[in-house]
Design brief:
This protein is an alpha+beta fold. The protein is built from 6 helices and 13 strands. Helices cover 24% and strands 30% of the residues. The longest helix has 17 residues. The radius of gyration is 17 Å and the shape is globular.
């Protein structure tokens, strides 16, 4: 997309940022699938820079398509990733206004918080050594595209559909074997999805290793204090005003939020 008649990276970034901020949908920006992945990530980065310019802070990274089946379905050989900013973090147990979103869904995740920087090609043990704590978490995904219809580059440009996240109590990762923890996604106390942390590339640490590699390649290495959302451990569920959404994770506890209309 480099001819003179094509809208610029900044144009798409402004469009997606405005729609995310105003919680309104827009038509696909690249229905003919002409965007390359590098261009899509450039749009995402430019969109997040607009948030930072408004006073938000970078607080971490989210990983996407961490299911092997989903990667195969999308024709991918690698995961995708997005950026987390301070306005996206919601205090556990509080209420989120539905008006923040267009057509939100929620998925249960494992979250890491780092105690030191982590960058480049690292091993699982090296990644674990950089982790301060782990926690059960929820991510609200909310594509800004009409009818939740998009190409792979479009979803990357739209910050991998990430909109908000909630993190539960932190635990010492050296005291819990978190490679295969059972979990449930619950809506109003009823189980909506059942899964395991093993769904995250076979072990959540592999997701953190990928985050270190991809973020460093983009010139934004993982920093101490950053949160890394390891990816959805089950299919996402549609959520609606009035619901209480929670994750219950073996050995790590629970996290939840109310969705008010």
């Amino acid at each position: 997309m480099n001819d003179t008649t094509t809208p610029s990276i900044e144009h798409f970034a402004e469009l997606l940022d405005t729609c995310a901020r105003e919680a309104r949908e827009l038509p696909q920006i690249d229905p003919e699938n002409r965007l390359g992945l590098d261009e899509a990530y450039a749009i995402q980065a430019a969109s997040i820079r607009r948030r930072i310019a408004r006073g938000e802070r970078r607080v971490g990274v989210k990983m996407g398509f961490t299911s092997r089946a989903k990667m195969l379905q999308m024709g991918l050989s690698d995961v995708i990733w997005g950026r987390l900013s301070s306005s996206m973090q919601v205090e556990e147990g509080t209420a989120i206004d539905f008006s923040r979103f267009v057509h939100p869904r929620c998925e249960p995740e494992l979250a890491f918080v780092l105690k030191k920087p982590l960058a480049g090609d690292v091993t699982g043990p090296e990644a674990l050594a950089a982790v301060e704590a782990i926690a059960p978490a929820l991510e609200i995904i909310d594509s800004r595209y009409q009818d939740f219809k998009f190409t792979l580059p479009e979803v990357i440009a739209d910050n991998a559909s990430s909109s908000a996240f909630v993190v539960g109590p932190w635990s010492d990762p050296r005291r819990v074997d978190f490679g295969n923890l059972g979990l449930t996604l619950n809506i109003d106390g009823r189980v909506a999805q059942v899964g395991s942390t093993a769904a995250l590339l076979g072990h959540p640490l592999r997701s953190l290793v990928a985050a270190a590699r991809l973020s460093a390649a983009a010139g934004e290495p993982l920093q101490a204090g950053w949160i890394v959302m390891a990816g959805g451990a089950t299919p996402a569920e549609w959520i609606r005003p009035g619901q209480y959404v929670s994750v219950e994770m073996e050995k790590l506890g629970q996290a939840g939020f109310h969705l008010k209309g």
